[in-house]
Specification:
Elements (H helix, E strand, L loop, with lengths): L2 E4 L3 H13 L7 E4 L3 H11 L2 E3 L2 H7 L2 E4 L6 H11 L5 E4 L6 H4 L6 E6 L9 E7 L5 H12 L2 E5 L5 H9 L1 H18 L4 H22 L3 H8 L5 H10 L3 H19 L5
Parallel strand pairs: 1-2, 1-4, 2-3, 4-5, 5-6, 7-8
Antiparallel strand pairs: 6-7
Helix pairs in contact: 3-4, 7-12, 8-9
């Protein structure tokens, strides 16, 4: 096996599907370990990968391990990884709040720390990653290809990973809440729920695509929509004279601070 998943939840499945769809690896090169036999049957039936309820079996079978367990389970799994004790094995972790030093057992192992987000479920993730010094350039290139199979990827310094957690890791929930506010307001002003939802979804999606494809500064795109004394101008006055900007900043900062707390004050 070239890759073993320790944990077979939704994010693991998103990465698994991305790997297979991009043909980075074949199903026969992948094993998934999970505590749920029902989940393993589902993954085996859908993706034709090997499965096991034994983390040790998966760890011994693969040259690369992708750690995708719940944070509360990470200590026991890391103990199993250290018990297998293969310093040439590459460990990729998508577990939030676990620093490289802890993953690598003090540089004993090659470790990669990843922060992604739930749009990975449709191949549209925003992902950042960092590696410890033992990871080779070839291995970093493999990690990049693996993560690109589920969306957009940036390399980052570990000190910035908790900021990434607040901005893009938690970010989808904040964006969905803003969308919900748009929809609620549309309904309150007389639109049907379906009308408000359709128009809101497309407004957010279209705005992102316009910004990405044109590459123009956001201030220019804002000005493009704003006619002097027009409707957008009137709405912007309310938005920009309110505390909305500070509220968004405080939201992201608090999420980042919570990531700091969960990682024990480490980056």
């Amino acid at each position: 096996m070239k890759l073993a998943f320790i944990g077979g939840g939704q994010m693991a499945e998103a990465i698994l599907q991305g790997i297979l769809d991009s043909r980075l690896l074949a199903a026969g090169e992948i094993m998934v370990a999970d505590i749920s036999a029902e989940r393993l049957r589902y993954l085996q039936d859908k993706y034709q990968v090997s499965t096991t309820i034994s983390n040790i079996q998966a760890l011994r079978a693969a040259s690369t391990v992708l750690l995708a367990v719940k944070p509360q389970a990470v200590d026991s799994v890391l103990a199993e990884i250290q018990a297998v004790n293969d310093p040439q094995q590459l460990l990729i972790s998508i577990v939030a709040g676990v620093p490289l030093q802890r993953l690598s057992a003090g540089q004993q192992f090659k470790a990669v720390r990843v922060m992604s987000n739930t749009p990975a479920l449709i191949g549209q993730a925003a992902t950042a990653f960092c590696c410890n010094a033992r990871v080779t350039a070839e291995e970093q290139a493999f990690v990049l290809k693996l993560l690109q199979s589920i969306g957009v990827v940036v390399a980052a310094e570990e000190k910035d990973l908790n900021t990434v957690t607040g901005l893009s890791g938690s970010g989808p929930a904040f964006v969905f809440r803003l969308m919900d506010y748009f929809i609620q307001t549309g309904v309150q002003l007389g639109l049907s729920a379906d009308q408000a939802r359709t128009l809101t979804y497309q407004t957010f999606a279209g705005s992102v695509l316009l910004a990405r494809r044109t590459g123009r500064p956001l201030e220019e795109l804002i000005a493009q929509v704003t006619s002097p004394q027009g409707t957008t101008f009137a709405g912007r006055q309310v938005l920009e004279q309110s505390a909305a900007g500070q509220i968004i900043r405080d939201t992201i900062v608090r999420a980042k601070e919570r990531a700091d707390e969960l990682s024990g004050g480490q980056p």
